[in-house]
Amino acid sequence: MESKTKLIVVAVIVTILIATLIIVASWKIQNIGTIRYSGGIQVYKYNNTSEPIEIIDWGIIDNGNTAYFEGYIYNNNSYTVNITYNVSNIVPNDLFDHATFSLKMDVDTLVSKYTFEPIGFELQVHSTRPTLTDFSFDINIYANEDK
């Protein structure tokens, strides 16, 4: 009888552990930025066209800290383009009351035809905001002919 009780206790503990692991494995904080393009440009991880960047996983950003990702913007047009951007689909709606997003480029906003230029994506969380978790937004990058 005593060994049956021990077996039941062990089975209950194993079941609780497995259930806990499943819950932890299925819960992930979604802190992403989806990159959308128009006008013949694309951002890549390296200065070749091997790994396009479509999503930035910002991770958890503590208050007062900054997350930064680098890549290379490629202009596939036969003319120089001026780069502009905006953000959309912001969740939660007040995200940018507590954080600042910006694009960083060495060449101001002009990208010559058929060239790669370094580009950075920066998200800074204000020091008055607690740790920033569970957010998303789209980064819309546009290329217009420089006239």
Structure in words:
With 147 residues, the protein is of the alpha+beta class. Helices cover 20% and strands 45% of the residues. The chain has a 5-stranded mixed sheet with strand order 3-1-9-5-7, with no helix packed on it.
What is the CATH-assigned architecture?
Sandwich
Going by helix content, strand content and strand pairing, the class is: alpha+beta
Mean pLDDT: 83
How many structurally independent domains? 1
Strand content: 35-45%
Q: How far apart lie the N and C ends?
A: 88 Å
Shape: elongated
Low-confidence stretches: 23-29
Question: Strand order across the biggest sheet?
Answer: 3-1-9-5-7
Topology diagram in text:
Blueprint: H1 2-26, E1 31-38, E2 41-44, E3 55-57, E4 66-75, E5 81-91, H2 95-98, E6 99-105, E7 110-111, E8 116-125, E9 135-145
